[in-house]
Amino acid sequence: MRLTRAGEYAVRCVLYLARQGKGVLVSRHEVASRADIPTHFLAKIAQQLAKAGIIEITQGAAGGYRLLHEPGGITLLAVIETVIGEISLNDCVVRPESCANSPICTVHRVWDRAAAQLRETLRETSFATLLDESCCLSPMAARGK
Q: Is the pLDDT of residue 93 over 80?
């Protein structure tokens, strides 16, 4: 499994907003620029994050995005699966009917277990944890200026 570009951008967006703090309104341009996300991609991702209740979008010239929860209450799993859907390593795990061998396939159980372990690791990782460690945002983005 490889994280999609959309998943990566969603993580960058939330991480940047988490650095600013819960409830702090940040312009779309600032998020796009500081988190290195193309603006057309950011708009789509922000809509998905807003629909999931992770961020709020404020329209208008003074609009932007704000984080709705404390960074410790938002997990990598929640953000990634908001954008890409449930993480799985193989179609047969999510859609057993797609493979005639699913009921008897021994590899199916391995994919299922591996995906569960990955999902658990992402569930255990909050954005507060990421803020406490070094992260993928540039030093300028980390300062927020």
A: no
